[in-house]
Specification:
Glycosyltransferase, elongated, Hepar_II_III_N
Length: 534
């Protein structure tokens, strides 16, 4: 067993409970509350309340949900009781917290027969450390000290470390917390060194999160803030890399947040994620990140501003999806083109479908096989105050597929040109917000609407010929979207016919826009641009 230094004395009288750094902070989940835990009701990851009972079944998995299991085993819900004890001085909260933790330790020995393997996975271990450390400020018992030693041993094992990932950040926070709590400089030093390396991999110099799901940037930012707080409270210097890249994350979060206040739901990102943090206002309306994102808007601070995202960059990893060359579009206060979304981390066929190209607004090369985890490149970009154009390419289908995207502001228009090398044909798909219903589909023009609001899709070839024969699927194989956790809604997906080139024009707010293409020029309601979009 690893040796600890001296322990801090437990709190004195109930009416003089000291608030501790380990217990205070924003590490607690929103649910359940301390009163709910006292009643034995656990509401985790948005699922219905689970009746805990006096005698806890630590093998419980009432919803067969991996996220529920991990959060249950994190014991953060137990930590709410200790925090409530610190805030109120009411001893019953601490007594129940101690009872829960002691029972957990007795029934979940590391490596013991009958202990569920997920109990000692890296993330439950790191997240569980915080409530146990919090409890240790008020409970001086050998079983608790010994359990934290086991946690520290696993946290310091390089074979279990998740470098370059938010799990690694949580592991470092946990190890540093134990090291600082018990005077183990070796653990605190290791955590600081590893955290610096992980931050360099997880947050690039531009401030972009490398995990391929922007919503995780909010989590990483909050955890790095907490890590720096622990370092300072432990009289340790915060490495400059950690401080600077944490600060740079704020710009990335701002750019990845849509005008409606929700983050662009890319990768494993729900459409209901609100940053709920002060990011400030970046200097630029449009930003291309080497990590594989373009985010653009008409103006900051205007809910009806147009907004778009474009994906490219390194091949899929961590929380990413196969969404390269994909776009989303928001205009006139409405979601227009949406991503397939994030359903859950369950190992289901639908979860894997949401990660596939078919769940995103992307082009496919007809007759060619898709190659997963292929990187893509932004090869050209033109920035104007009222119009931007981008060209991207990759070999995800063995041959070069190229997508050019133009976004016009003021008169809102998005235009997208898709081609493939070697004369190969391409087809594409366009997933519209679930609120839209199909109004008409004829002659290469599809009109969708929601009440008085309409949006029109028109398709041409690069030589300006109309391309007709679009199919619209709602439900079935393609017509789905998951805007929130564990939700699945039917939505309309417009699927193009195959063609050697496809020029798609999206016009929000109009059911009969004047769209024409001739002589290599496209005109939409008086707005003109080249058919190659540059």
């Amino acid at each position: 067993m690893l040796a600890f230094g001296g322990l801090v004395s437990p709190a004195q009288a109930d009416d003089k409970v000291t608030r501790t750094a380990e217990c205070q902070g924003d590490w607690l989940p929103g649910t359940p509350t301390a009163e709910e835990v006292m009643r034995g009701e656990l509401t985790l990851v948005g699922l219905p309340a689970y009746k805990l009972g006096k005698k806890i079944n630590w093998d419980a998995s009432p919803y067969k949900n991996r996220s529920w299991e991990f959060v249950f085993q994190s014991l953060r819900w137990m930590g709410t009781l200790v925090v409530e004890y610190e805030n109120t001085g009411e001893r019953s909260y601490l007594n129940r917290a101690e009872e829960i933790a002691k029972d957990w330790v007795a029934n979940n020995k590391y490596g013991a027969r009958g202990t569920q393997p997920y109990v000692w996975k890296d993330h439950p271990v790191s997240l569980r450390t915080q409530p146990l450390l919090c409890l240790s400020r008020h409970v001086k018992e050998s079983w608790l000290k010994d359990s934290l030693a086991v946690h520290a041993k696993l946290l310091s094992d390089p074979r279990l470390y998740k470098k370059g990932h938010n799990h690694g950040i949580d592991q470092d926070i946990a190890l540093m917390g134990i090291g600082c709590r018990y005077g183990r400089e070796d653990w605190a030093d290791l955590a600081s060194r590893r955290l610096t390396g992980t931050v360099k991999l997880d947050v690039d110099a531009q401030g972009a999160l490398m995990e391929q799901a922007p919503r995780y940037a909010v989590y990483v930012y909050s955890r790095l803030q907490f890590a720096m707080t622990i370092m300072k409270s432990c009289d340790r210097k915060v490495p400059g890399t950690i401080a600077s890249r944490t600060e740079a994350l704020k710009d990335f979060i701002a750019h990845a947040t849509m005008p409606n206040g929700y983050m662009a739901p890319l990768g494993d990102g729900s459409a209901e994620t609100e940053p709920k943090m002060e990011t400030g206002t970046p200097k630029q309306e449009v930003k291309a990140y080497r990590a594989g994102y373009v985010f653009g808007r008409t103006a900051w601070g205007k809910p009806d501003s147009a907004y778009y995202s474009i994906r490219y960059g390194p091949g899929m990893k961590f929380h990413g999806h196969e969404d390269h060359l994909g776009v989303t579009y928001y205009a006139q206060g409405r979601d227009i083109l949406v991503d397939g979304g994030f359903h859950s981390y369950e190992k289901s066929s639908y979860r894997y479908w949401t990660m596939s190209p078919e769940a995103h607004n992307v082009p496919a090369v007809v007759g060619a096989r898709f190659r997963p985890r292929t990187s893509s490149t932004l090869t050209k970009a033109e920035y104007g105050s009222d119009r931007q154009s981008f060209r991207l390419t990759d070999k995800a289908y063995g041959v070069s597929r190229t997508r050019s995207v133009l976004v016009n502001h003021g008169e809102d228009v998005m235009a997208v040109l898709d081609t493939a090398s070697g004369g190969k044909k391409v087809k594409n798909m366009w997933r519209f917000d679930p609120s839209f219903k199909v109004i008409s589909n004829r002659g290469g023009e599809v009109v969708l609407g929601d009440g008085k609001f309409k949006v029109t899709l028109v398709q041409f070839s690069a030589s300006c010929d109309r391309v007709s024969g679009q199919k619209v699927e709602r439900g079935g194989k393609l017509g789905w979207v998951s805007p929130t956790y564990l939700s699945k809604k039917p939505t309309n997906v417009v699927v193009s016919p195959a063609a050697t080139s496809l020029l798609t024009v999206i016009v929000p707010g109009a059911d009969d826009p004047k769209v024409s293409c001739s002589g290599g020029k496209v005109t939409v309601e008086g707005v003109s641009f080249p058919a190659d979009l540059f």
